[in-house]
């Protein structure tokens, strides 16, 4: 089975939480058009959105980074993601301390 794209992760997170696209876009701090483009695979979120997407989708940050890298055409694997300090296995960059 193939790995999900970041758009599929976002779409699934929206469905799992019972949100509308407008509500999901607001939580992700993006426009409805940007949200739509991400979920349809027209565009790929920039890496500066990783923390917010990980929190929204309830997935580890490393998994979101891997998806974004794959979507950008990189053959991402766990070792490549581990090279990005401070991100792997953090549940959220926005969690309260």
Walk me through what this model shows.
This protein is an all-alpha fold. It has one domain (6-82): lambda repressor-like DNA-binding domains (434 Repressor (Amino-terminal Domain)), CATH 1.10.260.40. 54% of the residues lie in helices and 0% in strands. Helix 1 crosses helix 3, helix 2 (21-27) crosses helix 3 and helix 4 packs across helix 5. Mean pLDDT is 82; it is low at 93-97.
Short key terms for the protein model shown above:
97 residues; 434 Repressor (Amino-terminal Domain); globular; disordered C terminus; single chain
Order of helical and strand elements? HHHHHH
Shape: globular
> How much is the radius of gyration in Å?
13 Å
If you consult CATH, what is the topology? 434 Repressor (Amino-terminal Domain)
Number of helices: 6
What proportion of the residues is helical, as a percent range?
40-55%
Terminus-to-terminus distance? 36 Å
Secondary structure elements and pairings:
Blueprint: H1 6-17, H2 21-27, H3 32-40, H4 50-57, H5 61-71, H6 78-82
Summarize the structure.
It is built from 6 helices and no strands. It is mostly helical.
